[in-house]
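Good morning,

Both structures are done.
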Amino acid sequence: VSQLSLYDVAGTRGVGADVSHINSRAQAKGFEGPDQLAEALKGCDLVIIPAGVPRKPGMTRDDLFKINAGIVRGLVEACGKHCPGAILNIISNPVNSTVPIAAETLKKMGVYDKRKVMGVTTLDVVRAKTFYAEKLGLDVSQVDVPVVGGHAGITILPLFSQATPTMP
């Protein structure tokens, strides 16, 4: 990493300043608000989008989708314009809905590459590893559990039969 651009609608300049003090050759800078989005994305090879709001108690996945879909769409449109060749990692929930929005947005712009748009659902893997380790009485750092499928309740599928170490 030679350059790290941090973007949010507010509060990013201070974080960017703090991150720039990390003992690394990478240059870090914070960007805030819509007026600085293009500058933040210019020349990026990788864009990680954790944007949006977290799911609150009583909020349905549909409620979450209505809010986060628009945020992701806007950011992806900016990526398509300012860094069309970048790899996009979408973390914004619900991931199984926001990734297709990103893909369709890029398709409409004529810059979609299926190898460069992906969802990140590390939480599912972390949970599966934790449950598995607890069941076997192992340190969670000593286990691996592959997880496939979507990121919505019934579509998440931890492959315990493929986990290591194997169950006795």
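Second structure follows.
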Amino acid sequence: AGRVSGWVWWVAAFTRRLVEDPLFYLFGRDHGETGLQYIAEKVPYAEKAVLLAGRVTYASVLVDPGMLVCLVAGATKMPLLYFYSLNIMGTLVRLAVIQQAALLFPEHVEYVLSIIHAYQHLLLGVGVMFVSMGSWRVLW
């Protein structure tokens, strides 16, 4: 898209991904089954992931290091060194794929950005509403 320099994008995106993943891993490691049950009760789509807890593999952390995968990796006591290594590699690959897609389809990226720019205030309000509703459900 050309609006942010390449190194700034890489640092911001990489940092953003790696700040939350270890927190979920540590939560899973420290709280184990209790943590999995808590998440399953509070987050609607998490129940299926909790049922698959025994099936989280090293490839899962490499391919999709999201909240649930990191939580389950911690709960199943995946070694910390393996978790960090796979998480970092997976994050770098994911960011490279995103960057290449943006370079291959610049017109599409610009089109989506123009829609976001035109409706940014509405999208912000909807986003705040959804986060508030989700937080309310988790906390209460």
